[in-house]
Specification:
Layout lengths: L1 H9 L3 H22 L5 H7 L4 H29 L1 H20 L4 H29 L5 H5 L1 H24 L12 H7 L2 H11 L6 H6 L3 H11 L5 H17 L15 H15 L2 H6 L1 H7 L7 H26 L1 H23 L15 H17 L2 H11 L6 H29 L1 H22 L8 H6 L7 H7 L1
Amino acid sequence: MASAKEQDTAKIPRRVIWLALAGAVGGFLFGFDSSVVNGAVDAIQGEFALSEALTGFAVAVALLGCAAGAYFAGRIADKYGRIPAMKIGASLFLISAVGTGFAFGVWDLVFWRLVGGLGIGLASVIAPAYISEISPRQVRGRLASLQQLAITTGIFAALLSDAVIANGASGADQPFWLGIEAWRWMFLAGAVPAIVYGWIAFTLPESPRFLVVKGREEEARKVFNMIAPAEDTDRSIRDIQRGIEEDRVAGQKGSLRGHRFGLLPVVWIGIILSVLQQFVGINVIFYYSTTLWKAVGFQEEDSLTISVATSITNILVTLVAIALVDRIGRRPILLTGSIGMAVSLGTMALAFSSAVGSGEDISLPGAWGPIALVAANVFVISFGASWGPLVWVLLGEIFPSRIRARALGIAAAAQWIANFAITLSFPVMAAASLPLTYAMYAAFAAASFFFVMFKVPETNGMSLEQAETLFVPKGSKKADASKN
């Protein structure tokens, strides 16, 4: 069976791999823009004489823009296409990079950060939707996982460029090229990938499934022949048209509305997957790791190096997920990741229950320091090899064609709001009780196991049209229509 799958994979045209990589560049911008602020925070605070609260808001406001961008991305992509949405996202990235680089005040900075957030939100929706719609079923998991690989690579690139620029200027607040402060160059560096992403968007074909939905079958046929010449193009088009007809028979007509608290059940599955991905606290490790590293004996100046090393680890374990997702399936990887996250987070909660001191003077006695450090890295590995990439894979394949972009937009918006809630709440919760905070994340990791066990079926090896029928409630009109 494995050899047959490898044979199928060998027949995949290089063009498809290029299209998936090109589509994933949006994920690179996503990771880069969301992390580039890390190296500039202290310099910005000094430049504009900001309070702690205002500094935190200037950093976190991009996440609200992300939620709004993700929500509207679906509407734009469904009305105008995936490629126009990419072009808009690239434009927003470019405008934000230049605007933040030359910001003259805090509210000016906040505005451009918000614009960048809109671009990130767009990219977070369009990339997985586009990649899943141009990928053959045999390798769709691997190609869709490129989104998370691109995100982690973008995070690494942002942290690395921040370090290079800061070291080159002897400080983020010091003048660099042309007498412009280093922190401004950190933001301006984002213009380069934004321009590359925009250029790529002009070279990509439109999603064939979007073309079929819009009644442009001949254009869709050309794209299908290019990306999957070995498959039956007419059958692929008929499958999509059948899905559209089933939506019509079911009375959905592209609507997200349903009887489950106003939304279709499949939309709620996407929302819960997205929220659980953030509620396990992964961004706490990336945004607030300094306290942990200092607690186990590292100096503050080493924190940036440690963050870069953690981002490299995240990239490597994402490669593991890409290698396995189409071989052993989505569910086993997600379930294993949930167990790893729950155990490692529970260990961190136990370790910090032995902490002495408070605030920035916290320390872990004896062996608890190394144990917490190992547990944190096990958590990053467990997340990066499972829930990090595979949530994006599932979001790209569980929604029906007519609502895919909009439903993905709702799920991604929920993900960004959850990210914002965790990012904003952690300092307060950590000040109250670090053990309780990590125990709460462990509880969400345990909940993620049971949610996948009982609510998420296996979609490995299925076409998008076959996968979406798994999430239709039994006895519904569409379920009945799919049997005929």
